[in-house]
Design brief:
Structural class: alpha/beta
Radius of gyration: 19 Å
Number of strands: 12
Bound molecules: nicotinamide-adenine-dinucleotide, 2'deoxy-thymidine-5'-diphospho-alpha-D-glucose
Distance between the termini: 31 Å
CATH class: Alpha Beta
Largest sheet: 7 strands, parallel
Shape: globular
CATH superfamily: NAD(P)-binding Rossmann-like Domain
Length: 336
């Protein structure tokens, strides 16, 4: 079986590539990643020589290049993760989000139809459901109510994916996961930003009152769920994925300060994110009931392992934070 993974040099995509190569010996992977600022070949450096793996530096918005790839390498399935993924960046400028997340998804769906690709997973996010009050959960039937340019672009892509199922019978499934954490997450996101700032002796900017809530899941639990959906999910269906693991941002900062033996004075309140969603919480009963998925990595085990990983891998994150990695990749691979 051959699977195309988009965004395989990013945080979740690189874990997915690694997990499949380790657990599914009959599967070959074509990784389509444009290498934006968030992509990093170092995430999969040890797998570059693996004959079951190849990376093509192609944008999912480039219809001709995607067509050519699918002609040269017919695939049985596409697992689509490539995206502009950071909410704060979308607040600065929404256009790259529309181009990659909306238009890129439509390019892939149409190419999948032309090339008769069997299954297609649209990897989406709980943010498409909007923001919750203090109680309740997002189920697959919750109405879409995205609030940021990022989440609005993901919601648009989800509708396009489901339309491909309804209109053409393409075997499309949509997954909507809560916040991921773990190794190789780009240090613009909350947990890796705070951990690496802590290691550098820099403050932790906590937005607003710090009481916004997210539902956290270890990235390896997410990629296991994606593989189960690819194997056994029903076309046209949406699957929520979440760890039932809610924390305020302030609680996370305090837990990290304890784990890293740092004073709580490292936490510095800063102005709030514009349009900041208050609470996300996923009802994941459907994937548990229908596909037998359960999270396996506990919060404290996962979080302390993540802190230890960043502690041991300053060679990975320091060039990212200094900007040196962008210079290096420009010389290796051309302009980003
Ligand atoms: P990321 O930003 O770490 O990685 C995105 C990857 O996509 C990068 O390697 C980048 O180079 C690539 N990419 C961007 N634009 C591209 C384009 N036009 N063509 C080809 N490649 C392109 O993102 P992530 O956190 O790993 O998220 C992956 C997916 O999972 C996204 O679709 C995101 O919406 C979704 N998701 C993320 C989370 C989370 O907590 N991180 C939670 C739920 C869902
Ligand atoms: O819910 C899934 C989503 O989780 C994914 O779809 C997104 O791709 C991913 O980026 C993530 O979005 P969030 O906006 O929730 O993640 P982020 O790490 O940016 O922020 C988490 C919370 O921490 C949020 O309430 C904002 C807050 N925050 C974030 C940063 C970067 C701070 O207080 N300070 C910060 O410096």
């Amino acid at each position: 079986m051959r699977v195309m993974i988009t965004g395989g040099l990013g945080f979740i995509g690189s874990h997915l590539v690694r997990w499949i190569l380790q657990h599914e010996p009959e599967v070959d992977i074509i990784n389509v990643d444009a290498l934006t600022y968030a992509g990093n070949p170092a995430n999969l450096r040890d797998l570059e020589e693996d004959p079951r793996y190849q990376w093509h530096r192609v944008s999912i918005t480039d219809e001709a290049a995607i067509d050519q790839l699918l002609s040269s390498y017919p695939v049985d399935a596409i697992m689509h993760l490539a995206a502009e993924s950071h909410v704060d960046r979308s607040i600065q400028s929404g256009m790259p989000f529309v181009q990659t997340n909306v238009m890129g998804t439509q390019v892939l769906l149409e190419a999948a139809r032309r090339h008769r690709v069997g299954r297609f997973i649209q990897v989406s996010t709980d943010e498409v459901y909007g923001s919750l009050g203090p109680t309740g959960y997002f189920s697959e039937d919750s109405p879409l109510a995205p609030n940021s340019p990022y989440s609005a672009s993901k919601a648009g892509a989800d509708w396009l994916a489901l339309a491909a199922f309804h209109t053409y019978g393409q075997e499309v499934m949509v997954t909507r996961c809560s916040n991921n954490y773990g190794p190789y997450q780009f240090p613009e996101k909350l947990i890796p930003l705070f951990v690496t700032n802590g290691l550098e002796g820099k403050p932790w900017p906590l937005y607003g009152d710090g009481l916004n809530i997210r539902d956290w899941l270890h990235v390896v639990d997410h990629v296991r769920a994606l593989w189960m959906v690819l194997q056994s999910g029903q076309p046209g269906q949406v699957y929520n994925i979440g760890g039932h693991n809610e924390h305020t941002n302030r609680q996370i900062a305090q837990t990290l300060a304890e784990l890293m033996q740092l004073p709580s004075s490292i936490i510095v309140p800063v102005p709030d994110r514009l349009g900041h969603d208050r609470r996300y919480a996923i009802d994941a009963q459907k994937i548990r009931r229908e596909l037998g998925w359960e999270p396996e990595i506990s919060w404290m085990q996962g979080l302390s392992g993540t802190v230890a990983w960043y502690h041991a891998h300053s060679d990975w994150w320091q060039p990212i934070k200094s900007g040196a990695y962008l210079e290096y990749y420009r010389t290796q691979y051309g302009d980003l």
